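Quiz preparation item.
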């Protein structure tokens, strides 16, 4: 048996090695109850959840359904969470004013007016959050005006990783005897 030569030594790299942090801080989800002025009636509201997604789950979230249906919770949507767990946003009846109010409250600043006036979406100029899943929860009592404002908001102003709409439907199935 021939003796084996030791492996050649590898000279140290001139560039320092990069160490990635394996701990990431995920902010807690945010919840908003959207209501229509002038009454701000909770029975006609919609709920919107902003859920941060950590990198290992991003592909799963991207592949989830954009439209979902579920059976209702007992009571109105506002009864799903305790009152202190969500922020209330009362939207004016005028579509453009409601869109501006929603954008200010969600983004925390005055949005670019040109985004809302564009006839088609401009993804290069939209506000983006590629790490957030948005769940919009509505039921048959939810004001259609709120839903229309949300559709415009996600089409022209704000581009999250994914928006998934969940509609609570009421079924009236009678058992035959």
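Solution:
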């Amino acid at each position: 048996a021939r003796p084996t030569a030791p492996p050649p030594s590898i000279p140290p790299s001139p560039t320092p090695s990069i160490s990635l942090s394996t701990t990431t801080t995920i902010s807690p989800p945010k919840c908003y109850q959207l209501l229509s002025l002038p009454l701000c009636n909770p029975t006609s509201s919609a709920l919107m959840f902003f859920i941060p997604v950590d990198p290992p789950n991003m592909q799963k979230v991207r592949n989830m359904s954009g439209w979902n249906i579920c059976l209702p919770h007992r009571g109105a949507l506002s009864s799903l969470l305790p009152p202190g767990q969500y922020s209330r946003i009362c939207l004016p009846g005028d579509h453009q004013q409601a869109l501006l109010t929603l954008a200010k409250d969600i983004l925390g600043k005055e949005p670019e007016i040109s985004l809302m006036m564009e006839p088609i979406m401009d993804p290069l100029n939209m506000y983006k959050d590629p790490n957030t899943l948005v769940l919009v929860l509505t039921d048959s009592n939810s004001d259609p005006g709120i839903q229309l404002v949300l559709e415009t908001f996600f089409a022209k102003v704000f581009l999250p990783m994914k928006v998934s709409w969940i509609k609570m439907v009421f079924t009236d199935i009678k058992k035959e005897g």
